[in-house]
Structure formats: structure tokens, C-alpha cells
Design goal:
alpha+beta; three-stranded antiparallel β-sheet; 7 strands; Peptidase inhibitor family I36; signal
Length: 121
């Protein structure tokens, strides 16, 4: 009887360890999107439609200044957890427009855009 109880206890402990190491149930796998790594905001070359290979990949929160970007470009927000991105006419994240939600993108004229911000949720 003791051997059976020990065996059952060992099995329960092993099962609990597997569940604990598997992560939360709502965690989604990391997915690239049009060459944009999961967790990043990407800018694509002028007039590349559809978006295939980004020229700029931003992964840290805060402002990222742009230079020599003219014409229409895809900007994809492949962040997670509710993080947004904004296109700003000023450098260092000044004068930003409406946030771009995670999992969405915009095809925008970057001529007047001087920075992009990655915003914490």
C-alpha cells in the first residue's frame, strides 16, 4: 500500500512540474509577421507593397528618430500585451498621432514623420 501511495505522489509531483514549466495557458507563440519579429515595430522600404522585408526594426520602448524616409511605407506593430506605436512629426517622440494597435499596420507617408514611439501598455 505504501509503494502505491508513494508512486501516486511521485506521479502527481511530476505532473505538477510539467504544468508549472509549460507556462500560462494564454501565452501565445512568438510569430514573425512579414519579416517583422514578434515584439517589434518594423518600417519597410518605400512603396514595398505588400510588406516583405523591413529596413528598420525597433524593439525597445520609447522614441526612435528617423531620417531620410520619404514617400509611403508600411509600418507594422508586431508587439504584444497591448503595446502600441505612434508616428510623430517631431524628433524624440514629439507631436505624435493616433496610436497604432498591436497586430495592425499603417501605410503612411513618412516624409513628415521624424520619429516613431513604442508605447508601453
Amino acid at each position: 500500500m505504501r509503494k502505491m501511495i508513494r508512486g501516486t505522489a511521485a506521479l502527481a509531483t511530476a505532473a505538477a512540474a510539467v504544468v508549472a514549466l509549460s507556462g500560462s495557458a494564454d501565452a501565445r507563440p512568438a510569430d514573425d509577421w512579414a519579416g517583422c519579429p514578434y515584439g517589434a515595430v518594423c518600417v519597410y522600404p518605400q512603396d514595398q507593397n505588400p510588406a516583405v522585408k523591413p529596413t528598420h526594426v525597433f524593439t525597445s520602448y520609447g522614441a526612435h528618430n528617423l531620417s531620410n524616409q520619404y514617400g509611403r511605407h508600411w509600418v507594422l506593430n508586431n508587439q504584444y500585451g497591448g503595446a502600441t506605436a505612434s508616428l510623430c512629426t517631431g524628433y524624440d517622440g514629439k507631436n505624435c498621432g493616433s496610436p497604432i494597435a498591436q497586430g495592425t499596420g499603417v501605410y503612411a507617408d513618412l516624409g513628415p514623420i521624424n520619429s516613431i514611439t513604442l508605447n508601453r501598455p
